[in-house]
Amino acid sequence: MSTQQALQNILQSKYPIVQAGMVWCSGWKLAAASCNAGIFGVIGAGSMYPEILDEHLEKMSKNVSTPFAVNLPLLYPSIHEHIDLILRHKVPVVITSAGSPKKFTKQLQESGIKVIHVVSSVLHAQKAASAGVDAIVAEGVEAGGHNGRDEISTFVLTPSVRDAVQIPVIAAGGIRNGRGIAAALALGADGVQIGSRFVLSEESSAHAAFKNELLRSKEGDTILTLKELAPVRLLKNKFFQDILDAYAQGADKEALAQLLGKGRAKRGMFEGDLIEGELEIGQVAAYMDTILPVEQIVQSLINEFSATKEKITNLPSWT
Q: For the chain, what are the domain ranges?
């Protein structure tokens, strides 16, 4: 079986496009809309208390008839409660990140759940494959939110991971349109994961103020920072400037953690505090200028992918 077919067997969506499970942006409404538009919907559980995840899973099951996933950062403090909920609700797929894939993969698979793990390097891809995961998301440094310390770009990472493992590879980071999808597949990916573009969807749970701030953003307005804690790509604002000032004053890991505190991402992305909030988003934010329903976003992706595919077949021959 080809890795493309293996991925199709996991996702069972019309298109091999995964809507990323982003904290504070990817609730059941976005995930359900994604599934119903023909792509693979994901609930971002990293920002949810167990009772909130339970509610989202209940609503998801009532609004979709196709498989979906829960994105589960393995460093989440209530991880065992989340695992229990996932097992009880019989979630078809779990996308793990930010931790060792060995921790829960076998347990989930024994319950019939497919496991996809997010990696930012070839080494971590090989470790994930050795742990027995069903597929890998190879996420480049262009992506929003938490990222890899080595800052490997999607264009470099995707073909390198493809050459290193024999399981399906999903490319992520910097993909916002059909041309990006075609490029990722040309590099060897079996599918793609798209996050930031779906933040600017009507169904996203991101605050309207955050969405509008993204529409105003320009090239260079996102930076990867806080590597001492957990590398994260942020949109520049007053809080980001506070981080820069702390670095200039020689802040150590403890001081940076104190500055970050708790709840910054919720304040910025979910509650709309554009000054003191943590605004996680990918580099592609600078090139997005519309807020659309998920269905329209997906149709645009497919239309542009088809047009790009036709152009590629007309490339000049160098033989």
A: 3-205+291-306, 208-284
Assess whether pLDDT exceeds 90 at residue 46: no
Residue 148 is predicted with a pLDDT of 86
* Dist. CA 124–CA 225, nearest whole Å: 21
- pTM, 2 dp: 0.95
Q: Is the dihedral of CA 155, 159, 160, 166 positive or negative?
A: positive
Q: Is the dihedral of CA 55, 98, 152, 167 positive or negative?
A: negative
Query: Rounded to an integer, what distance in angstroms lies between the CA atom of residue 31 and that of residue 60?
Result: 8
Q: Between helices 28-36 and 50-63, what is the axis angle to 10°?
A: 30
Q: What is the mean pLDDT of the chain?
A: 95
- Please give the order of strands across the beta sheet that includes 232-235: 145-146, 232-235, 222-225
- Contacts of 122-128 with C-beta under 8 Å, sequence gap 24+, read 122/157, 122/160, 122/161, 122/164, 125/161, 125/164, 125/165, 125/169, 126/164, 126/165, 127/100, 127/101, 128/101, 128/165
Q: Which class for 208: exposed (0-12), middle (13-18), buried (19 or more C-beta within 10 A)?
A: exposed
Distances (CA, A) of 300 to 18, 37, 172, 197, 297: 15, 12, 18, 11, 5
Q: What is the structure's pLDDT at 238?
A: 97
Fold adopted by 3-205+291-306: TIM Barrel (3.20.20)
Does an H or E element contain 115, and which? strand 114-119
**Helix, strand or coil, per DSSP, at residue 225:** strand
